[in-house]
Amino acid sequence: MKKLTSKRKKNEIYTNTGLISNQAITLISLVITIIILIILAGVAINLSIGENGIFKRVKIGKEQY
């Protein structure tokens, strides 16, 4: 009978469902990070340029002063 040996690579994780690569997990985390940054950028732009944003408040304050 031949002995079965498996050599695991550093970037592989074995689970009950099969083989998952760490590179895929890293890619998913990268995509999630980019989505969160896009949402934060949209909120920041809206707060600064929006209908009642910082720039309009500065303009109104300057006129009142």
How would you sum up this structure, described in words?
- This protein is α+β, with helices and mostly antiparallel strands.
- It has helices at residues 22-49, 54-64; strands spanning 12-15, 18-21.
- The protein has a two-stranded antiparallel sheet.
- It is rod-shaped.
> How are helices and strands ordered from N to C?
EEHH
**Beta-strand content bin:** 5-15%
Distance between the termini: 92 Å
Q: Work out the radius of gyration.
A: 26 Å
Enumerate how many helices there are, as a single number: 2
**Chain-averaged pLDDT:** 79
Low-confidence segments: none
Measured as a percent range, the helix fraction is 55-70%
* Shape, principal axes of CA atoms: rod-shaped
How would a crystallographer describe the biggest sheet?
2 strands, antiparallel
What is the total tally of β strands?
Answer: 2
Give the neighbour order of strands across the main sheet: 1-2
Structural class: alpha+beta
